[in-house]
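Case study: YneQ.
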Amino acid sequence: MAFGIKRDELKQWKKDVKSGEIAFLTHYWADDRFPKMNTVTKVGCSDIRKLKQWGKKYGLKPKWIHQDERYPHFDLIGSFEEDILFAEGKIEQLKRFKNISN
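Here is what the predicted structure looks like once written out:
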């Protein structure tokens, strides 16, 4: 279950993914399989080759791509999520959802 994002944020992420950009969307999330995780970042791109190449630089395996027909994406959680968001300069998303001040 996803929550904590605005409809416009989701629409923009979908638009960016469809246009072939590497797009980030962080939101609160609850999943019984991961009880200690409360956020997830979806990193999507309709250009699968580009998404695989992007993921490779962070050690993400192509088999981890959710092969959603319209919005293929990686789900980042835990240390992958934080490390990659820092590396990509998406610190505002971390501040907003993880209460990080730096």
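For the exam, be able to explain this: The mean pLDDT is 89.
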